[in-house]
TrEMBL record:
Annotated PANTHER family: 26S PROTEASOME NON-ATPASE REGULATORY SUBUNIT 12 (PTHR10855:SF1), 26S PROTEASOME NON-ATPASE REGULATORY SUBUNIT 12/COP9 SIGNALOSOME COMPLEX SUBUNIT 4 (PTHR10855)
Protein name: PCI domain-containing protein
A Gene Ontology cellular-component term: proteasome complex
Pfam families: PCI, PSMD12-CSN4_N, RPN5_C
Alphabetic keyword roster: Proteasome
Record-stated family: Belongs to the proteasome subunit p55 family.
Location of region: Disordered: 1-22
Keyword Coiled coil in annotation: no
Compositional bias (Low complexity): 1-10
InterPro entries in UniProt: PCI_dom, PSMD12-CSN4-like_N, PSMD12/CSN4, RPN5_C, WH-like_DNA-bd_sf, WH_DNA-bd_sf
Metal-binding listed as a keyword: no
SUPFAM superfamilies from the UniProt entry: Winged helix' DNA-binding domain
Domain PCI: 265-455
């Protein structure tokens, strides 16, 4: 091989290594020649365009030699120089064509393709902050249409290339921002859902969570509640508890409350608001802890009674900060006591005025949730939650009545509940159907029975068990008496 301009490294014999030709010196000379050609004819637009084409032709020939000669560093320099010449000539169309041509060359090096994409990113997105926000005040040589076309081209180039998965994720967010800005929120959501960012290894945990939260937000904006729920399951709750994730944790549970409000899931809302309240940043004074704790207590009281709900009420009731919100303290204490509650509660108006009762939907219609999901579509969110609140108080009173009464007149029970007989029967029937109460209504005799009638075998078994316990106590007492006598005798 001749002279110092071209040198080979490695051996091609046996197929072990590809031959590499060093074209660094020639690359420097050709790039300088191309730049001089463009700069010397920058006076008029026609001559500048012609000079740009000549310069790109020079670099295209050199690019082929570098690619075939496996001189990757020189190849990267040639590709970047080609793009930079288009930018210097303010020719957005030439930039787009050059990018497409160089990225689709036969056997193009992955390093060169990655360099092409990364060199173009600063011209369309703000790489100094997040890496996906489109540049609003673009350079004078590129308008909004050309910028968007360049973003789409870059995204197409990154498709299917694992070494550019991070760039593809960020460019997809850029496309979603552009579509949403143009009023196509549904299209933005569809584009963003195409990227399964949870499988990407080149993105940090924080960036993955941010991407998934944006998927949730756009899905909720398009009223695609099923998809938003599926996407939310991709976020590990343990990741949100890590240091530095407090802001994302609050945002995640805030988005999740929108879904649960639509579904009318009061207990899930209570858990979401309590998770927000438990965030250290929210716990600080002025961090919004009062609103989060109030919402948690209100929706906890709106939840249908289960052992899990009771357990959470007991834990929340031990929170010392609850004393600073009297209406919440008194309400949750009333639900925990085995006493009949009067409706409305002393703080009923304050509890029902919480902003969390408001509907997040634009049209004021929420489908699902509450005591009767089928009829909830005609109610506003605040009216539906108010009716649910009344229903939960009635259900609490029915549970207390079942503890103190084995049977009671239906009219008397209705008087205790401050309801008419028909409404009382409806509430009893609903609780019996849900399995939260045992009751039998004898309408002809106007009696409600809360104790299940037992067969003779069950009564006899209980009697035998009680007799066995009694005999055991008698035997133990006799033994203790004899023991004491023996101790005293000595």
């Amino acid at each position: 091989m001749s002279s110092s301009t071209q040198r080979s490294s490695g051996g091609a014999s046996g197929g072990q290594l590809e031959e590499r030709v060093d074209l660094s010196a020639e690359t420097s000379a050709k790039i300088a020649q191309a730049r001089d050609l463009v700069s010397s004819s920058s006076s008029s637009s026609s001559s500048s365009s012609s000079a740009l084409q000549d310069a790109l032709a020079i670099l295209a020939a050199l690019e082929k030699r570098c690619r075939l000669g496996n001189d990757t560093p020189s190849l990267v320099r040639v590709c970047e120089a080609s793009l930079e010449l288009c930018v210097e000539c303010n020719d957005a169309e030439a930039l787009l064509n050059t990018l497409r041509t160089l990225s689709t060359r036969r056997s193009q090096k992955t390093t060169a393709i990655a360099a092409l994409v990364r060199r173009c990113l600063p011209w369309v997105v703000d790489v100094t902050t997040d890496g996906y926000t489109p540049i609003v005040s673009s350079p004078a040589w590129i308008d909004e249409t050309s910028r968007n076309a360049l973003v789409m081209e870059l995204r197409d180039i990154t498709d299917g290339r694992m070494y550019l998965e991070a760039e593809r994720a960020r460019l997809t967010r850029t496309v979603a921002i552009i579509l949403e800005g143009g009023g196509d929120a549904s299209g933005a959501s569809d584009v963003l859902q195409e990227v399964h960012v949870e499988t990407y290894g080149s993105l940090s945990k924080r960036e993955k969570v941010e991407f998934i939260l944006e998927q949730m937000r756009l899905a909720l904006l398009g009223r695609d509640y099923v998809r938003s729920r599926i996407v939310s399951d991709k976020v590990k709750r343990s990741v949100l508890d890590e240091e530095g994730m407090a802001e994302l944790k609050v945002k995640f549970y805030t988005l999740l409350t929108t879904y649960h409000k639509h579904e009318g899931e009061a207990f899930e809302l209570a858990k979401c608001y309590h998770a927000i309240y438990a965030t250290p940043a929210v716990q600080a004074e002025g961090g919004g802890w009062r609103e989060a704790l109030t919402n948690s207590v209100v929706f906890l009281c709106l939840s249908e009674y289960t052992n899990e709900v009771r357990d959470m009420m007991e834990r929340v009731n031990l929170d010392p900060r609850l004393d600073r919100i009297p209406e919440c303290r008194d309400t949750i204490s009333a639900f925990l006591r085995d006493e009949i509650m009067a409706y409305p509660l002393p703080h009923q108006a304050a509890l029902e005025s919480t902003p969390a009762f408001d509907d997040d939907d634009d049209d004021g219609v929420v489908v699902g949730g509450g005591a009767s999901p089928a009829s909830a579509s005609s109610y506003s969110s605040r009216e539906r939650w108010r009716e649910t609140f009344h229903a939960r108080i009635v259900q609490h009173n029915l549970r207390i009545a079942s503890v103190y009464y084995r049977r009671i007149k239906t009219s008397r029970l209705a008087q205790i509940l401050s309801l008419d007989v028909d409404a009382t029967e409806r509430h009893i029937s609903r609780m019996v159907s849900n399995g939260t109460l045992y009751a039998k209504i004898d309408r002809p005799r106007d009696i409600v029975r809360f104790m299940k009638k037992r067969c003779e075998e069950e009564v006899l078994s209980d009697w035998a068990s009680d007799i066995g316990k009694l005999l055991g106590l008698v035997e133990e007492t006799t033994y203790l008496i004899h023991k004491e006598r023996m101790v005293q005798s000595h």
